[in-house]
Amino acid sequence: MSNRAKAVEVEDLRLAYSGREVLHGISFDIHRHEIFGIIGPAQSGKSSLLRCLNRTIDFDPGATVSGTVRLDGQDVRKVRDVFSLRRKVGMVAPLPVGLPLSIYDNVAFAPRAAGLGKRAALDAIVERCLRQAALWDEVKDRLTSLGTALSGGQQQRLTIARALSHGPEILCLDEFSIAIDPVTTMRIEDVLKELRREITIVLVTNLVQQARRLADRTMFLWKGEIVELDTTGVIFSDEPRERRTFEYVRGIFG
Amino acid sequence: MAAPAGAPLFSRTAHVQRAERRQAIAKWLTFAMAVSMILPLVAIVGYLLYRAAPSLSWEFLTDVPRRGMREGGIWPAFVGTLYLVGLSLAVSAPIGVLAAIYLHEYAKDNWFNRLINLAVINLAGVPSIVHALFGLGAFVYAARFGYSILSASLTLAIMTLPVIIASTREALASVPTAFRAACWNVGASRWQTIRGVVLPNSISGILTGVILQVSRAAGETAPVMFTGAVFFKAVSRGDLFPYRLTDQCMALSMHLYTVSTQVPNVKESIPYATAIVLLGSVLMVNASAIALRVWLRNRKRW
Q1: Looking at the predicted complex, does its ipTM rise above 0.90?
Q2: Looking at the predicted structure, is the pLDDT value of residue B265 above 80?
Q3: Does B203 contact chain A (CB < 8 Å)?
Q4: To pair with B296 at 20 to 30 A between CA atoms, which of A81, A89, A115, A222?
Q5: Which residues does chain A have within 8 Å of residue B178's beta carbon, measured at their own beta carbons?
Q6: What residue ranges define each of the domains in chain A, with the CATH number in brackets?
């Protein structure tokens, strides 16, 4: 596969918090326009990995990173304008975070921070992102009411709309469904299948079945190391390469 | 604990009875303490009002002292306190709030910032008489501001600064970190995050902290006595702008001290009425702080 088809290249990535290493030199690629699933039990370094992608790991003063992470062939740790790097990566946290602003301002926050002030352009972005997040129909008549007043599932879709508002090339979702109901989860999963046509999606999840439903390829991360990375079909088949993978996806361990 | 055989289900065992008794004692004890806190306040205000009654009038507030402060009103002292408090907070509030924003939102956890924190905490514990002496040395003599409103206000400003920093930090800390992380994730800078999300949601706490320092600045006697408040200053009655910054002024706290202890044969009710004016203005400011807090709370967004 050519370089242009790779959205993210990770090489020998090591990450330590105050000397305690949580990622032990992992290497993998994420292809363009795929849904890349990352599964693994708690404390296996999944969320930390995402924070290395958009360099929000910088906010953790005790963290030391080595190795390279390339986004579009660019080493993220050599990027000067870290803000435009972060706009290339959309992040959705496990718990929905509606900012204490109106629904409109929640979505317009990032474009405004990027310097966009024109009302018409903002209106267009807000509508597009809310539609993409399957929230538009529910909130179009009350865009000025508070984002924090929405239900949990709606807030999570609002978070997704916000993550799309800065036109990311990659959308990372970190266990987006742990705080929302199954029906909303299914709606968001449909949204993700739609979005795959336009952007690359990294799906970190504790629910192995969710990875099975959505991901093109799945990586099993365990204690900061890659146990196995293959097409989702292989990972969930009766004979993946690793015994541990087989046992984890069937809930025998982990 | 399993009930003995034959006992009705859910009967109150000895253990449950003991727990209920203790719970009742704890409740009444804490209630008694809460009530005993109100009693002194009511007693003080009631006693002051009773003794001050003969002098209390609008006249008393707007008139100047007469016959060597044995009669008349307290206008110069009242305006002087307004000057001192207003000016000192105009200096300390912006500095304190901005410093707190740096310390809470930007500062990394290193030795230098730990040193600043230590300084802030210790500065908050310095007795006011020491601040007074410092103000005398620093502003009156070294900076050559002389005995003036300026020196006194700056002294009060330094005294209130560490408390404003501490209360502002508290207010900033009450904004969940998740909001900040969400902003950083979409490519907002720290300042954009502070401006857009953190400050709008901590402003009520910040303002309350600042306003509560009004009462402290108004009540302090030693710092202003050392640096710019005087025994008597001739002012025309009802004049709102009688002082210049380089003038000395009268102040309510100092005036109370003077008429209570330094002037013989003062009309008996005058010290009490002065105390009522001081207390009344402070309580009014505090009440407005509470009102502001309630109003901003209601607009709070999560």
Answers
A1: no
A2: no
A3: no
A4: A115
A5: 93, 95, 97
A6: 3-249 (3.40.50.300)
Q: What's the pLDDT score for residue A4?
A: 55
Helices (H), chain A: 46-53, 82-88, 103-113, 119-132, 136-139, 152-164, 182-195, 208-214, 232-235, 243-249
Residue B9 counted as domain residue: no
What distance in Å separates the CA atoms of residue B206 and residue B96, rounded to the nearest whole number?
10
Segments forming the whole domain that contains residue B173: 58-298
Average pLDDT, chain B: 85
pLDDT score recorded for residue B3: 52
Q: How far away is chain A from the Cα of B114, in angstroms, using its nearest Cα?
A: 15
- Asked, for residue B45, whether it belongs to a domain, the answer is no
CB distance from B202 to chain A under 8 Å? no
d(CA A107, CA A129): 8
B237 part of a folded domain = yes
Predicted model pTM: 0.81
Chain B closest CA to A115's CA: distance in Å?
Answer: 10
Tell me whether B192 touches chain A (CB under 8 Å). yes
* pLDDT tens digits, one per residue of A118-143: 888 899 999 999 988 888 888 888 88
Report the domain count for chain B: 1
Q: Looking at the partner chain, which of A86, A95, A148 has a beta carbon nearest the beta carbon of B187?
A: A86
Q: Which among B179, B183, B185, B195 is the top mutation candidate for probing chain A, defined by the most A β-carbons within 10 Å of its own β-carbon?
A: B185
Does B33 reside within a domain?
Answer: no
More confident residue, B237 or B169: B169
List the CATH number of the domain containing B236: 1.10.3720.10
